[in-house]
Design brief:
14% strand, alpha/beta, eight-stranded parallel β-barrel, single chain, TIM Barrel, 292 residues
Length: 292
């Protein structure tokens, strides 16, 4: 079993014009290796996977898997709103060397809870690497209920869930029903401490693109039994700034301010608005992430 405890970073996809910028992608991977990020999630929401072609996805997986060379686990986002396509992408990721999969609930279709169970069972049956469920109703209009998660947790290679519902009562119920062997990750940076206190393992983070080492240290200290409320809340303003516009618009701009030329998001997303640009820069200065 791969070790996924701690901080997983939902990595951005750098672009140069209309193409993926592999030189900058290498710089980002080196940064996370240096910062000792626990694991990386590629081709997720933050990676703008919805705008990437199948050819681009394949090449990104091949590049990242080859370059990382098992130094840290690589989780690949393979979820779509079609079970056959999700299964095909999942099988491709496994074949190309992914360590695990992140499979979002089917969006737009709005399946029933029974439909979700059937969907995930089908995907899980066709791959052997670990699968993490991804619940993000704000993007998908689909919520996995705790009882459904419990049923899916019985499947051997479904190992956990990224919970971005924002509903702490629901997250508590998931943890209570599934037990300690099932991994529960916060999908919201500002709820990381809350989820840890409930018994979760960590966070799959957007802010981790810019401060992976700091977030990793916070979680490690918490797991040693230290009282960490003030230390976690210290980063709330930074977390908030990452969502001043739709993710990943702000985090890509933050990375540019920090010297990583990740380029603009793909349409229909635009560059950060000028009024927000100034606000974001001031926040980054407050956290000593750029020169004052």
């Amino acid at each position: 079993m791969i070790n996924l405890n701690g901080v997983g970073v939902a990595l951005v996809t750098p672009f140069k014009g209309s193409k993926v910028n592999y030189d900058v992608l290498k710089e980002l991977l080196d940064f996370h290796l240096t910062q000792k990020t626990d694991f990386l999630v590629i081709l997720g929401s933050t990676a703008e996977a919805a705008t990437l072609s199948l050819t681009e996805k394949k090449k990104i997986i091949e590049f990242v898997v080859k370059y990382i060379d098992k130094r840290i686990p690589i989780m690949v986002g393979s979820g779509t709103n079609d079970t056959k396509t999700t299964t095909s992408l999942s099988k491709m990721a496994e074949k190309l060397g992914a360590d695990a999969l992140l499979v979002v609930t089917p969006y737009y279709n709005r399946p029933t809870q029974k439909g979700l169970i059937a969907h995930y069972k089908y995907v899980a049956k066709h791959v052997s690497i670990p699968i993490m469920l991804y619940n993000v109703p704000s993007r998908t209009s689909c919520n996995i209920l705790p009882e459904t998660v419990f049923e899916l947790s019985k499947i051997e290679n479904i190992i956990g869930i990224k919970e971005a519902s924002g509903d702490l009562k629901q997250i508590f119920d998931v943890i209570k029903l599934t037990g300690k062997s099932f991994l529960v990750y916060s999908g919201n940076d500002d709820q990381t401490l809350d989820v840890l206190k409930l018994g979760g393992q960590g966070v799959i983070s957007v802010t981790g693109n810019i401060i992976p080492g700091a977030l990793k240290s916070l979680i490690e200290e918490f797991k040693k039994g230290l009282y960490m409320d003030e230390q976690f809340s210290h980063y709330n303003k930074l977390h908030d700034s990452m969502f001043i516009e739709t993710n990943p618009i702000p985090v890509k701009r933050a990375l540019e301010f920090m010297g990583f030329l990740v380029g603009s998001p793909r349409l229909p997303l635009l560059k950060l608005e000028k009024k927000h640009d100034k606000i974001l820069l001031e926040v980054l200065k407050q956290y000593d992430l750029v020169k004052k």
